[in-house]
Design a protein that fits this description.
Helices cover 37% and strands 24% of the residues. By secondary structure, it is of the alpha+beta class.
C-alpha cells in the first residue's frame, strides 16, 4: 500500500473522530484545505473507497446518521475503547498533517523521549513470541548493574520514559523497569504464558504516573487550586477520576480517586504554591514534609518556622 494512501485513511479517521456527525460536504472542503488533495475537493467515490478501506485496515466502522443531516461518525466509540489504536492514529495523523504542510515543518517542534526506545523492537519481539528476556539493568538506587530474567507483559510510556511491566520468576512478583536504565536486552529460548487474568488497567488502577504500589490504596483526595493552576489542572486533569466539586472567584476545588504515591505528590509539587491538599489528612502531612525538605535543601541552617516569620516581615533577607 502506498504511504500517501495510508496517510489519507488516517487523516479521514482523525477528522471524523474529532468532528462527529460531519457531513460529506464538510469532509470534502476540509480535504481541499488539508494539503492532501492538492486544493481539490474529495470525490464521492474516493470517499466511499476510503471508508471501506478504513474498516478493513483499522477495524473502524464509519457510520452515517440521516437524522443529523447525513453526518458521519465513528460507530460505538471504537477508538476510545482501544488505547493503542487511538494513540497510533492520533500520532500518525499529526505527522501526516505536518508532512502535508511541508512549508511549516521548520515552525513545528515535537518533544522527544531522550533514551530507552532502542530496546523497543527486541522487547516487542519477545512479547510477540512470549519469550523470557534477560536484562542487564542499572537501577538509580544501586551502585552496580545486575542481570536477571523477566517475563515481558506490557510496555507503557509515562512522562517521556518507556517502561516494561514484567514478572520476575526469581522474586515471584511483577515489577516495572525503565528502558533507559537497561544496559542490554536479550531474548532467551524460555517460553512463558501471559496470565489470562492480567489486566494492565486494573494493575494501574488509581495510579498517577508509573508507581503501582499495592501498599497504598485508592483514596479520595481533594485539592484546592489557585491562580493559573486552577485552569491548568481543569484543562489538563491529573487523573481520569478528577471532577470539579466547588469553585469561587479565586479557586477551584477538585476531587480525585487515586493512589497517593510519591509520583502523585511530585505532580502536585510541580504546581508550586498554587495547589493545596484539603484531604485526606495523611496526604496533607506528607506534602508538608516534602515542602520542609525543599526548604532545608535551600536553607540548611535556617529552620522553616524562622524562615516563614522572616518572609512575613517583608524585607528581611533570608540566609
Amino acid at each position: 500500500m502506498a504511504a500517501n494512501k495510508f496517510g489519507r485513511y488516517i487523516w479521514l479517521v482523525d477528522l471524523i473522530k474529532n468532528h462527529p456527525r460531519i457531513t460529506f460536504r464538510q469532509i470534502s472542503e476540509a480535504w481541499a484545505d488539508s494539503g492532501l488533495g492538492d486544493g481539490k475537493c474529495l470525490p464521492w467515490r474516493t470517499f466511499m473507497n476510503h471508508k471501506e478501506a478504513i474498516e478493513t485496515i483499522f477495524d473502524v466502522i464509519v457510520e452515517c446518521d440521516p437524522k443529523a443531516g447525513y453526518g458521519y461518525y465513528i460507530a460505538d466509540d471504537e477508538l476510545q475503547g482501544n488505547n493503542l489504536r487511538s494513540w497510533l492514529i492520533d500520532s500518525y495523523a499529526t505527522l501526516n498533517q505536518v508532512q502535508a504542510d511541508s512549508h511549516l515543518q521548520s515552525r513545528i517542534s515535537f518533544e522527544q523521549i531522550p533514551s530507552g526506545s532502542r530496546y523497543l523492537q527486541i522487547l516487542l519481539q519477545a512479547m510477540r513470541k512470549n519469550r523470557v528476556v534477560e536484562l542487564e539493568y542499572q537501577s538509580f538506587s544501586k551502585p552496580k548493574a545486575y542481570t536477571f530474567e523477566v517475563e515481558p507483559y506490557h510496555l507503557k510510556v509515562v512522562r517521556r520514559r518507556w517502561y516494561l511491566i514484567g514478572y520476575s520468576p526469581k522474586r515471584n512478583v511483577i515489577y516495572t523497569y525503565a528502558l533507559d536504565r537497561m544496559l542490554s536486552v536479550g531474548i532467551t529460548d524460555k517460553p512463558f504464558e501471559l496470565p489470562a487474568d492480567f489486566d494492565i488497567d486494573h494493575y494501574f488502577e488509581g495510579c498517577v504516573g508509573i508507581m503501582a504500589d499495592d501498599d497504598i490504596g485508592i483514596d479520595r483526595v481533594v485539592i484546592k487550586t489557585y491562580d493559573w493552576a486552577r485552569w491548568y489542572i481543569k484543562t489538563l486533569p491529573l487523573h481520569a477520576s478528577q471532577r470539579e466539586i466547588a469553585r469561587d472567584d479565586k479557586s477551584i476545588t477538585f476531587e480525585l480517586w487515586v493512589r497517593p504515591t510519591f509520583d502523585f505528590m511530585q505532580l502536585l509539587l510541580q504546581q508550586a504554591g498554587q495547589v493545596e491538599v484539603v484531604e485526606p489528612e495523611w496526604v496533607k502531612k506528607r506534602m508538608c514534609e516534602l515542602a520542609r525538605e525543599v526548604w532545608q535543601r535551600y536553607h540548611p541552617t535556617l529552620p522553616i518556622e524562622e524562615g516563614i516569620s522572616l518572609l512575613k516581615q517583608g524585607n528581611k533577607p533570608l540566609e
